[in-house]
Amino acid sequence: MKVAPKPENEPERLEALYSYQILDTESDRSFDEITELIVNICKVPVASITLIDERREWYKSKVGISDIEASRDISFCAHTILSDELFIVEDTFYDERFFDNPFVTDDPPIRFYAGTSLKTPDGYNIGTLCVIDHIPRKLDVSQLQALKILGHQTMMQLELRRYINNQKDMLFDINQQVQEKTKSLMQTNKLLQKENQQRIRAEKELKNTHRALRVLGLSNHAVIHAIEEEILLNEICEIIVDSGYLFAWIGYGDDDKKTVSKQAFYGHSSDCLDSMTVTWTDSKFGRGPIGTAIRTGQPSIIKDVNSDHRFEPWKEEAKRYNYASVLALPLKEGSKTIGALAIYAAEQTAFDKESVKLFNELAVNLSFGINTLRSKIEHNRMEEELIESEARFHILADSAPIFIWTTDINKSCDYFNKQWCEFTGLTLEESMGDGWTKAIHPEDANKSFQTYIAAFDKTEPFKMEYRLRRYDGEYHWIIAQGNPRYTASGTFLGYVGLCMDISDRKQIEKKLEKNQRMFLDAQRIAHFGSWTWNIQTGDEQWSAEQYRIFGYEPNEIKVTYDIFLESLHPEDKDRVLQEIYNVLLGTGCYDTEFRIVRPDGKIRVVHAQGEIVTNSDGQPVEMIGTVLDITEKKIIENNLHKYEHIVSGSLDALSFIDTNYVYQAANDSWARNFEKSKDEIIGYFAYEVHGKELFENVIREHMDKCLSGHSVSFEYWFELTNKKSRFLDVHYAPYRDKEGKIKGISASALDITEKCYTEKMIKDSRQRLRNLAKRLHAVREEERTKIAREIHDELGQRLTALKIDLSWVAKRLPRNWKKLPERLDNMILLTDTTLDLTRKIALDLRPAILDDLGLEAAIEREVKMFADLTGCNYSLNINDTKLKQKQDRDQEIVVYRVCQEALTNIARHAKAENIDVTLQTSDSHLRLIINDDGVGISNKSLASTSSLGLFGMYERAGALGGRVEITNNKKGGTEVMLKMPLSVPSP
To answer: Residue 819's pLDDT is what?
Structure first.
């Protein structure tokens, strides 16, 4: 951070500041209105009128600031008072004087500052009027002008306040003298009357100053917000009359007739203009105040219309409408006086020195407003002409019988005309970049491309010939010519070039080798002007096109070398003559561009080429050549740089935002997405388009990231004005200039509202299916539990009772009853096996061990039973103590059933010899992993919809938020993994 040095005149400056007796005074509405006005004009959140004393900056008026003062060491305004010029810091983060200033590092930070010094009439800068923003930005010309004007008005208010204080002090002194000299009233009566007159005059002057100052303030506001000249002039007249003057009107001077035409007026006596004759000549009707102001360019005052002879022609009107004094002020456009503003008052003393000074400032500001509005009209006219010029270029390019192309600065072609596309059969998109080389004959492609690249590296014109494939596959000889193009300031923009089909010339060359030179000349002049020059006689011959290029009808005049010289533009003539002289000496090549002046005075730009014809002795006798009118091409070259960033049509919404978050461009799709017109977007800050809350909470973060060099994509529900919402997929990409500096944001947005609704419906549908599956699973398990309990409790108990009775009967039967005991033994055995089967069915339906001992014991029992039935070797890994806690009942059933189904599938299909079962938990999930070394599972089986076992495992897990993954493992067998989120056990 750099502390501002103190001015060299610091002691005198402080003395001037203290003379205003303004420090630590109460707030004043006249100053508050100025800060409120500059905040609205500059569209910033913070503004202040700041005074700098020896150790601090103190705020007389402030908007957006809670403190009343701050240390001078960290003051921005302390830098501002060092100069009379505007002090502007567009981004404090990148200014070495302020990047670590507490005002910048605190929240919210000062990112932008602009201030103007408050300069006393003695030349001391005692403070500033400044504006502040929390984002980087720039002020336009009108805002900067407004800041300077209102800074001047602030100083006028300080001067007025000091003037009023002085008047009050003077009145106080007068009253003191009256009290002290009451006893000698008769002796001091004359002195008292004089002093009383001074007081009355001072009060009148103060009243006049207040009235003039009010007119100036309201008029400045009107000037700043004006949109049409006529409305502005009428509003100024109305402000003047509403402030206490009788009549006001504005007239413009006619340079030819020397008359004054009324442009605006206001007041109860506005009909007097109909009977008044006013000119601005030095005559009877031109020596009045408004004629004098226009003629001399200086303010003109009539203090008493009855006694001033200059107002003699209009005294009747003055008497009828009670005019006592008149002030006329010149209105200027640059140094030229274009009209005047006339103000009529009922008092002879209405226009004192201070009032005239204020009204003269009003005239200056009004002149600025008039000139600004006229400049805007001229700017709009130029824009319309530019659009028309662009349209002419496209019509010209597509109508030309030759191929026209352009490139950017990166050697990439970015435009081909319609003739190129029709000839090659390539679309514009296929030809762009280096796509045009695809149509060149393979034998010519490398040489042509290298010629193109070499010329580009040197930024010099080039010509080349190559064979180009037509749309039907036939190759034609083409001659291509390219020239570098530049901006008006000399910045290289790329190349513009022409291509012509010279196949006919090539064919003739093969048949007529003796006439090769004529053939080349004829082809060179096709669609161009052609000429010959007899060096010895000076006579020339022009083609019909050559005549037209130089502004004549064919054969209208006899052409000579002198006619050619007279047509050359004076600024180009010496250069062209030198080039011709060099060619005649054999030291140069006649291939040049220059301007010609037609007989009608119009200037055209031509590209001329020529060659020397020598006699048998090698002496030059003739020169032949061509001329091409490249005026339109030059215009196109000057305008092409404005179209480098034209975006082709897109269904996506597109826009461009600069580094100050201001929309500079937006297409119709972008405007439709946010239900605004383009006029409501372009030129506005992003927070004005989308709302400050949305900008600060969502959009600004993404824009800042993009401006730091990153591409950003995000999706967001945007609330629109009709209480509807759109879900937009927004993409921000940084836009860089040719030096790589980020100049803004290229934004695109895609409306995916319908897609979002569709995905939500699908998601809700899937969730309902999961809930249904979960409910079906629960119902099925409840039924299984109920059936298992019935089988175990009812059928099991009855079979047990039957077995007891059979055992009892068997013990009491005699052994000699032949086979009856044997039958009873068989019945008891059958009862035992039936009991075992009953227990197994009950266990399969709902294993009691799951309820009694938990999931770990149930899995261990199931694996051991599988090993006993199949003979497989197994390993079981249950090593997490969390499993010993009671789990959710539904989760336990899912894990157990998946284990059952996996082991069943291994027994049926895997032909495995070994299995490995792992049951473990993490902080949030439970995993069951079963591996075998069998034959594995095919992709067809995994994708099959008829496998109810696999489908059942997927559905059971999915219903409770889990998932099952079945893959082939490294051993060649199958791996089944179940992953379930841990949950609080159900009550």
So the answer is: 63
SS3 436: helix
Only one residue has tokens 């298992």, namely: 788
Contacts 24+ apart (CB under 8 A), 533-536: 533/561, 533/564, 533/610, 533/622, 533/623, 533/624, 534/621, 534/622, 535/584, 535/620, 535/621, 535/622, 535/623, 536/621
Alpha helices in 330-400 (DSSP H): 353-399
Distance of CA 41 to the CA centre of its chain: 21
The string over 637-669, giving b where at least 16 C-beta atoms fall within 10 Å of a residue's C-beta and e elsewhere, is beebbeeeeeeeeeebbbbbbbbbbbbebbbeb
Output the CA–CA distances (angstroms, integers) from residue 414 to 290, 426, 445, 720, in the order listed.
60, 14, 19, 38
Rounding to the nearest 10 degrees, give the CA dihedral for residues 12, 15, 20, 22: 120
Distances, alpha carbon 306 to alpha carbons 315, 317, 324, 778, in Å: 7, 11, 7, 111
The whole-angstrom separation of Cα 283 and Cα 301 is 17
Give me 489's structure tokens.
Answer: 């300031």
Task: Identify the helix (H) or strand (E) that includes residue 596.
Answer: strand 590-597
Report which of 260, 276, 262, 248 is spatially closest to residue 343, judged by C-alpha positions: 248
CB 641 within 8 A of CB 493: yes
Burial (Cβ within 10 Å: 0-12, 13-18, ≥19) of residue 747: buried
| Surface-to-core class of residue 55, CB atoms within 10 Å of its CB (0-12 exposed, 13-18 middle, 19+ buried) | exposed
What CA–CA distance (Å, rounded) separates 78 from 689? Answer: 36
Distances (CA, A) of 312 to 325, 339, 676, 921: 13, 22, 60, 111
965's enclosing H/E stretch is strand 963-968
Helix (H) or strand (E) holding 785, with range, is helix 753-790
- Cα–Cα dist 937/947, whole Å: 12
For 376, the token pair is 């805007």
Tokens of 722: 């009709």
Classify residue 504 as exposed, middle or buried by CB count within 10 Å of its CB (0-12, 13-18, 19+).
middle
- Rounded-to-integer distance, Cα 974 and Cα 462, Å: 70
CA angle 489, 495, 499 (to 5 degrees): 145
pLDDT of 921 reads 83
Residue with tokens 């009529």: 344
Residue 770: closest CA among 503, 950, 959: 959
* pLDDT computed for residue 588 by the predictor: 73
351 vs 355: CA distance, rounded Å? 6
Enter the pTM of the model: 0.31
Which pLDDT value is given to residue 524? Answer: 41
Which residues, given as ranges, of the chain have pLDDT below 50?
A: 516, 518-526, 640-649, 881, 884, 886, 984-987
CB count within 10 Å of CB 567 equals: 20
Tokens matching residue 70: 């701050």
What whole-number distance in Å separates Cα of residue 781 and Cα of residue 852? Answer: 16
Helices in 586-720 by DSSP H: which ranges? 631-640, 668-673, 686-690, 692-694, 700-707
How would you class 119 by CB atoms within 10 Å of its CB: exposed for 0-12, middle for 13-18, buried for 19 or more? middle
H or E element: which one contains 926?
A: strand 925-932
Q: Please spell the DSSP secondary structure of 152-209, one letter per residue.
A: HHHHHHHHHHHHHHHHHHHHHHHHHHHHHTSTTTTTTHHHHHHHHHHHHHHHHHHHHH
CA-CA distance, 27 to 493, in Å (whole number)? 57
Q: What contacts 160, CB < 8 A, 6 or more positions away? A: 209, 213
Give yes or no for a contact between 146 and 47, defined as CB atoms under 8 angstroms apart.
Answer: no
To which residue do tokens 């034959």 refer? 935
Tokens of 637: 């070259």
CA dihedral 809, 810, 812, 815 (to 10 degrees): 150
Angle of CA points 265, 269, 274, to nearest 5°: 70
Contact 861, 844 (CB under 8 A): no
